């Protein structure tokens, strides 16, 4: 096992790769609908506080563990403590549950791209267009298959190099276009109310679920609590500034999510005529409001719509490629199967596992675990249950088993660590206590027992 581990070309390589994995549908699709649902400004505030405290500390810890051990999650935790190797396995299950339903949403994005290219942008702005589409049994599955196939081809042929080059152009383009669409959205008549809803916290809307929702979203968006950042850290060089890289990824990821919220939420207000229930559309919010924004802007808007969905597709693909790569490499490392076989198996497995999530809005809409659609159920189980558990265990592991010093020492190999105190306090006390309280109260809540 003395094989040399390939390394990123430098700090920029690491930041770009990690940002490519972090920035995806989580930022553009998931963040706005959660912010709309959980009270706008108050959600944004809680989210930002979580990013600079818990998110920062966890990402530092995960990247440092990876860089220290030069192993991905399963091996890394085992190497640091035989007793805690379960944590590596637990973390690795998360991407396997996320990947299939991520592809369902990816399929919807491909569909919308197709609609805009074929000139159907106006129809897509219709009120029931989206709900009619996802309720069909066959069509969403076709787009899902296309999306899974696309991801698998990229992973199989390993054209990541090309992807890396393309993302240098596409990612900035996505930022520019998002700013443009956000500017258009907030200047629509009636949109200012939405801007206020999004930016001004209303403390009466605060609840434990706001925190749980924001925390799950933060893990999801920054690809934390699933071993991904451990793997990325393992490819990082000793000399590259770890703290600065983590800050840059956080700023980039949070910036895009913030802009996506600004693009979607004011538009909901502008196009629903102040109807508050429009905020509660859940997973379909982006697909329902953005087409209205594009249609409102005339022919040019429809062109922008096409370009926009292309860029979203790209951001989604960079994320799902790294999701699939993770799953493939876990299977390869564990069972020593060939790459071709593993890729095919993961592709077929993902497609089959995604079917219920896709059918959950039509044929299978009578299956409603915990009152949620199947896709929302998987989303809930991973983001609101599994990831908080993994994050809690990681905090205990770093704070009390190997000790925060193990991580600080690793960080200090490459730079000063000005936020070391914050890191130690958060990882040892604040984070584990908060996560535990939130988890307990949300479980009670789900079981119907009145919580705080
Ligand atoms: N962070 C990604 C996003 O915002 C989604 C994601 C979750 C992910 N887990 C991942 C991407 C693991 C790559 C690897 O869309």
UniProtKB/TrEMBL annotation:
Primary location recorded for the protein, binned into one broad class: membrane
Entry's transmembrane regions: 40-65, 86-110, 140-157, 169-186, 206-230, 251-273, 293-320, 341-364, 384-402, 422-444
Gene Ontology molecular function terms on file: symporter activity
CDD domains, per the entry: SLC6sbd_Tyt1-Like
Domain of life: Bacteria
Location within or outside the cell: Membrane
GO CC, alphabetical: membrane
Keywords, sorted A to Z: Membrane, Symport, Transmembrane, Transmembrane helix, Transport
PROSITE patterns per record: NA_NEUROTRAN_SYMP_1, NA_NEUROTRAN_SYMP_3
Membrane topology designation: Multi-pass membrane protein
InterPro entries linked to this entry: Na/ntran_symport (IPR000175), SNS_sf (IPR037272), YocR/YhdH-like (IPR047218)
SUPFAM superfamilies given in the database record: SNF-like
PANTHER family reported in the protein's UniProt record: TRANSPORTER (PTHR42948:SF1)
Family of the protein in this entry: Belongs to the sodium:neurotransmitter symporter (SNF) (TC 2.A.22) family.
Name used for this protein in its record: Transporter
